[in-house]
Specification:
Strand order of the largest sheet: 3-2-1-4-5-11-8
Number of strands: 11
Radius of gyration: 21 Å
Number of helices: 9
CATH superfamily: Vaccinia Virus protein VP39
CATH architecture: 3-Layer(aba) Sandwich
Length: about 290
């Protein structure tokens, strides 16, 4: 959990309706590649913690007998249910809960996934609980966009969304320190997952990079949806200035692309994998006397 920040239920308040349209997709073959890496065969269950509208949960549903998405935002779960029905996914279940409320009577899972959500939790506490929800050899999955230098706009068929000016516009309305629910993130969100998982007793770390590379066309509405899908610019944060902010945002987008068409390169997907040890290691020391 970020230092100096406490979770509250307004973290993504109002963002669920914008999430599916606004967020760039994960790499197209991420589910297939992960299934190959974990030798998934349609058995076992997946738990997706902080599932949002079920983007990753539903992509992985064909590789498990059942998938369970957990999220504290009820609007996100409504969107997840709608998406499951639209995609005709019948083995998904949605549970309103925080990660800190696990195991919540949910039982054992072959894999537990955090897709861009682990940093919002009390990580040491949650990792220890999740370890007990996995069988020996079960997988802890941490999925995110691959971090790297900003993509060069050269070669794109349309202007890229003006991320720097958009961030400056958000700060002009909400202040210089990043907002998150009712609080702020002075130092951003934490990293160092490998240390947290090591303390919890996980091992066998592997990193899976799934390349994307595709360029997608985005409308001004898509870019606006992306802004409102974020925790640091969720609609409720603007209060009665929401309309003014959206007008200024759309004006900025028109100045960048008068035709209202943008292009972005889909980032690679990074999946970090740890395992619950299969057996306890023998303690080193002298053999007992016979």
């Amino acid at each position: 959990m970020p230092d100096g920040w406490q979770w509250d239920p307004t973290l993504f308040q109002g963002s669920a309706a914008y999430y599916e349209r606004g967020r760039l997709p994960y790499a197209p073959r991420f589910a297939e590649r992960l299934a190959e890496e974990l030798a998934l065969d349609g058995s076992g269950r997946l738990l997706d913690v902080g599932c949002g509208p079920g983007t990753a949960t539903l992509a992985l549903a064909p590789y498990f007998v059942a998938v369970v998405g957990v999220d504290p935002d009820p609007d996100m779960l409504v969107e997840a249910g709608r998406r499951a029905r639209r995609l005709d996914v019948g083995n998904a279940r949605w549970v309103a809960a925080r990660a800190e409320e696990l195991p919540a009577g949910l039982g054992e899972f072959r894999a537990v996934m955090f897709a861009q959500s682990f940093h919002w939790t009390d990580r040491d506490e949650v990792a220890a609980v999740v370890r007990g929800m996995l069988p020996p050899g079960g997988a802890f999955l941490h999925m995110s966009d691959r971090k790297g230098p900003p993509t060069e706009p050269a070669g794109l068929p349309h202007p890229a969304p003006p991320s720097g000016p958009v961030a400056a516009l958000v700060r002009s309305y909400l202040g210089e320190v990043r907002r998150a629910g009712r609080g702020v993130l002075v130092d951003g969100t934490p990293g160092g997952e490998e240390h947290v998982l090591a303390r919890a007793g996980f091992e066998g770390f592997r990193r899976l990079i799934v390349p994307a590379g595709a360029v997608v066309e985005r409308s001004a509405d898509d870019v606006v949806a992306n802004v409102f899908s974020r925790s640091d610019s969720a609609p409720h944060l603007f209060g009665d200035r929401l309309g003014a902010f959206e007008r200024d945002l759309r004006l900025l987008l028109r100045e960048t692309s008068p035709g209202g068409v943008f292009a972005e390169r889909v980032p690679d997907t990074e999946i970090k994998i740890w395992r619950r040890p299969v057996a306890a290691r023998r303690r080193r020391g002298r053999r007992p006397s016979s």
